[in-house]
Amino acid sequence: MNPRHRAHRGDRTAAGTTESYLSGVQAPLARSVAGALVVSAALGASACAARQPPACTRPDLSGCAIEDVSFEGGEVISGDELAERIATAESSHLLGGAFERVPILSIWDALTVEYERFDRFVLERDMARIERYLRARGFYNARARAARVQRTGGPGKEGRVQVRIVVSEGDPVKVASVDLQWRDWTLEKGRDIARPVTEAKNQLKIGERLDEDQYEELKKSLLRVLTDRGFAYATVEGHVDVDLLKNEARVRYTIELGPECTFGKVNLQGLGELPEAPVRTAIGIEEGERFSTAVLADAEQALADFGVFGAVAVKPELAPPGQPRSPVVPVTFSVEPAALRAVRLGGGAEVGSRVEAHLVAGWEDRNFLGGLRRFNIEARPGLVFYPVEFSTLLGNDLKDDFRLLPEIQLRSELRQPGAFERRTAAVLRGSFKLYCPQTGEFCTKPDPPEEKEGESGNAADTPKEESEHSIVGYREYVGSIGLERPFLKSDLNASLLYNVQLNSPFTYNAAPLPVGFGTIFIPYLQATVSYDRRLNRAGKPDRLTPHHGYYVALDAQLAGYLAADTALAKTLVGPTAVNAKRFHDARDIRLQPEFRAYLPVSRRWTLGFRMMTGWLFPTNPDLQYGEASFDPTRCHTSASSEERARCGADLQLMQFRGFFSGGATSNRGYGFNEVGPHARVPSPTATEDTDIEEAPLVPIGGRLLWEASLELRIPLGESFGTVIFADAGDVTRELSLFRSGAQRPHLSAGVGLRYTTPVGPLRFDIGYRVPCLQVFGKCTPGEEGWPEDERVPEALFDVLPIAVNLAIGEAF
Predict the structure, then answer these.
(1) Strand runs (DSSP E) across 508-644, as ranges?
(2) Nearest in space to 371 (alpha carbons), one of 272, 278, 307, 299
């Protein structure tokens, strides 16, 4: 009979210190495709020659490139989980080396491959690491050994090895009991802690496998329960007795409470020129208040939310071990202020559906007029090269149509912390914008009219003089005032704002404004709420490159419903204009929820998902906009003035309140605003005999939007990465996710490259429109029966159904 074995563990934990954005590029290229392929092949050959695997000549195979590392025998702990704990790793190839021997595409693999070298001594230490990790997960009899290290076979695989590791987990050790022992328990001390301590203890389930991480996490939870309720000197000691014959573990936690404590004096260090009063208000700790580490954590987060401190540290001044424990605990907040004032200068450009260049100049003061107020102002002047697009950038057919359209954007924001209560900030924003919006038809050159034949079969005898196209711009004034507040360690953020938006149209050229176009007035109450739990591989918040977690947001707007809206409109545009209906006011409810999720599928790969919908409910009794049955003949010059006015108002209001889709941040298989309802809207200067079928097909916006994206993100070293994605979505004027008639999922799939920059990843995506899944039942765009309100998207090289997108920042 084997002797009875026991393993003892004991430890102790004590309380202590606590866009610039480049839109989708989609156009025929001027260079020869064949020439590009030849150059790419040459580059691929040179790249492959430069990135050959290391030599593999030693008898013990040391230095050989590791092609594959696999695990056998594990039933509970996966091989991927074990691979994260060892130094021996397989070489990293794009998509597992799928492109390594593919012509042209091998460039991608050769430039991104990272070879790992085999080392026998490292592998021996890895065996010990695996056994130690398995014991920490409850497998005390686990064993690991290297079964095989052998060369791989097959062409192109010479000089590489495969490593096979065999793991024997054995029977797990299970928790038999969890007990608590108290050193200084009294009924008076235990009145507030008995229930939460019991609830925390139940996290470690009897009968489950003993896991060191869970054991340590429970010890921390017990300590946090005590320090949150006034016991600043509390300690929790843990002991585990393991019976290897029975594979049982008995867990015991010994708790010492110490005296009940209150907060003493709150000391501030490192403020410098910053005022003390708003900092103390944000901390919100009063002398004599019951001690709590939860209160300290909340105060620390409140200081971080100011955005003026580079570092914040909180230290309760506890008595040293062996000294009398004072029940009054002073607290010291040490801060390191960041730069309080900054000047930003820069510039940018956009080449895609339009070509523009701009400058950026800004100034920020994080202690404006004292009181830790934040004020910033930014100016962005620019020029649009009308009607130049990427496809006509080097063309010579612009002639008299070419114009430089000036644009400018001015915006400012003032934030007052501690409004009403210590974590609520009052916000005042204002902006002015002079620009030509990309939605609609009036900032793009219209399609040339088709030539019609005369009665004799020749060209029409009397050509009509072509009218000048109106280039419509807007002067936009926006003002906002409201409150913002973070909750739950700033993961949950909520705001309530009242916004007033006024858009006054004008033309950049001598052509008149379209009939019905007038001043747009949009007063709306806006409530936003978001909950952000996006984390990186280290478990820290990360909005740029999350590895796991989720994000939920809702933007709700109520436009034109407040009694003060009409009075405000008369103040801004005058009572005469209001009574004469020379302006259009929005009255609607607009909802836009969004959900994002990130799932780690391996130690480095991340699967991302996004779902977003938008709902617009217009309720203006005098002006219905966004109706499902849009009639473009109302915009024709032969229509009555009233009908043309209503048509113009519909187009204008939907331009600012409706939904559009397509582009680098939504459906990457389409160009900007190519997804959604379109209509042939006649030019405002067209003659009465102009055929409606000759009018350009332009996006008119919808009342319902849905978009879904799935993306697999694969890092390739420190700076590069690649993605495989699928996007789908639709925009309709029907208030139904499933439209009447054929469904239009607009499914696209593609790949992309990522390069890490200080301002976010630079991404290059290629989206391919999947045949027969743009409009169900229609496999050829533009074929007979193709929906009249569905635009035929542009094709790359006039052949390929793809779109190319270049942008900074992830799509979601």
Answers:
(1) 519-532, 549-559, 583-585, 588-600, 606-618
(2) 278
